[in-house]
UniProtKB/TrEMBL annotation:
SUPFAM superfamilies: FMN-dependent nitroreductase-like. GO terms for molecular function: oxidoreductase activity. This is Nitroreductase family protein. It comes from Cognatiyoonia koreensis. Residues 306-326 are annotated as: Disordered.
Length: 326
C-alpha cells in the first residue's frame, strides 16, 4: 500500500511534531499495511525524564502527526496504543508506542495544514488581546488574567531554579543544548542557540554559569538572574494548562497534546512550554490546586502561547536515516 518514497515523506512530515527537549525519540518502520512508532530508548535523558513520560508524550505526538500525514494522502487510520504494554521485545532497544493500521478511503484532517506551521518561540510575544474564536479543547485550562499569569511566571522561575540546582541535571542539560554552531548535532537535535533565541554573549554566560561558576553564582544570588524567564512569560497573553484523565497513557496524551498545539497554531500562536511547572512535583501540585484540576486528572504540560515578535527560528530535526527503519 505504501512504497518506500511515500513512507519516507510521511515520516519526514510526522517528525515535525513537538518533542520534549527536542530529543526526538520516535522511530518509524513499515510492516506491510501497518506503521509502527516506537521510542528509541538510547535517547532518554535520565535526569530530565526519569520515568520516560516525556518520551511517551513525544512519541504520542509523533503518532498523531503520522496519522495526519496519512489522512492527507487518502488513508484511513486505526491507532492501537501499546505504550502501557511496555513492549521492548518487538523492536530491539525500543519501546513500542503504537501501531497505525492503514486502509483506503481516508479524508484529510482539518489540522493537517498546521503541522508544518507549528513552532516553538522562546522569547517575548506580541502585546495584543488574544482572539480565541475556534478554540475547542476541553482538556486545557486557559489562563488569561494578569494576576494568574504573574503567579505562573513566578512559580515557573522558582521551579526552574530548584531543578537547575541539581548538578546532574545541569550536566545533562549542557550536553543537550547546542551553544556553538560547530557542534556536530547543531542541525539535528537538542536545543540550539538559534532555537533558544540566545545571543552569543548569553550563550557564553550559560556555558560558564551552568558549569563551573554555578556554586559561586548561587552564593551571590546570580543563579536567579541567569535562569529567570519571568519578563518574557508576562508577555504571553495566554497560558494553557493541558491535563488528561489520570489513567490515560503517555501516547494518548501526546496525541491530544499535538492537536492542542495545532489548534493554537491555527489561531496564529506560537508556543513555549513551561516544563519546570510539571517537572517539579511540588509546583505541579500547586498548579493543579490553583486551577482546580482534580485528582481524576493529570497535569501534563503548561504552555505559553502568543504571537511571536520575530521570524520563525530554524528547526533542528534528525535526518531520515536516523528515524526510519526499513
Amino acid at each position: 500500500m505504501l512504497d518506500h518514497d511515500a513512507f519516507e515523506r510521511i515520516v519526514t512530515e510526522a517528525n515535525q511534531a513537538p518533542s520534549v527537549h527536542n530529543a526526538q525519540p520516535a522511530r518509524w518502520r513499515l510492516q506491510r499495511d501497518v506503521i509502527e512508532v516506537a521510542a528509541d530508548l538510547s535517547v532518554q535523558l535520565p535526569e530530565a525524564d526519569p520515568d520516560q513520560s516525556a518520551i511517551g508524550l513525544s512519541c504520542g505526538a509523533a503518532v498523531e502527526a503520522t496519522m495526519l500525514a496519512c489522512t492527507a494522502r487518502g488513508f484511513q487510520t486505526h491507532v492501537v496504543d501499546h505504550w502501557d504494554d511496555n513492549n521492548r521485545h518487538t523492536w530491539r532497544a525500543h519501546r513500542l508506542a503504537a501501531q497505525i493500521y492503514l486502509s483506503e478511503g481516508g479524508r484529510p484532517d482539518a489540522l493537517y495544514d498546521q503541522l508544518g506551521a507549528r513552532f516553538t518561540w522562546r522569547s517575548n510575544f506580541e502585546q495584543e488581546t488574544p482572539r480565541l474564536f475556534g478554540w475547542t479543547r476541553q482538556d486545557t485550562t486557559l489562563v488569561l488574567d494578569a494576576p494568574t499569569r504573574t503567579w505562573f511566571a513566578d512559580h515557573n522561575d522558582t521551579a526552574s531554579l530548584a531543578i537547575l540546582n541539581r548538578p546532574a541535571f545541569r550536566r545533562e542539560l549542557l550536553s543537550w543544548i547546542r551553544l556553538d554552531p560547530v557542534h556536530p548535532r547543531w542541525s539535528f537535535d537538542g536545543l540550539s542557540r538559534e532555537a533558544l533565541l540566545m545571543p552569543k554573549a548569553v550563550a557564553r554566560k550559560v556555558r560558564l554559569g551552568f558549569g563551573p561558576l554555578w556554586s559561586l553564582l548561587r552564593l551571590t544570588g546570580g543563579t536567579k538572574a541567569l535562569t529567570a524567564e519571568r519578563a518574557q512569560t508576562l508577555t504571553a497573553p495566554v497560558i494553557a494548562a493541558f491535563h488528561v484523565p489520570a489513567g490515560l497513557s503517555a501516547t494518548e496524551a501526546g496525541r491530544a497534546y499535538l492537536r492542542l498545539w495545532l489548534e493554537a497554531t491555527r489561531l496564529g500562536f506560537a508556543g513555549w512550554p513551561m516544563a519546570a511547572l510539571t517537572d517539579h512535583a511540588p509546583t505541579r501540585a500547586a498548579v493543579a490546586k490553583r486551577l482546580n484540576i482534580g485528582a481524576d486528572r493529570r497535569l501534563v504540560q503548561v504552555i505559553r502561547f502568543g504571537k511571536p515578535t520575530g521570524p520563525r527560528p530554524p528547526r533542528a530535526r534528525r535526518p531520515i536515516a536516523e528515524i526510519m527503519n526499513d
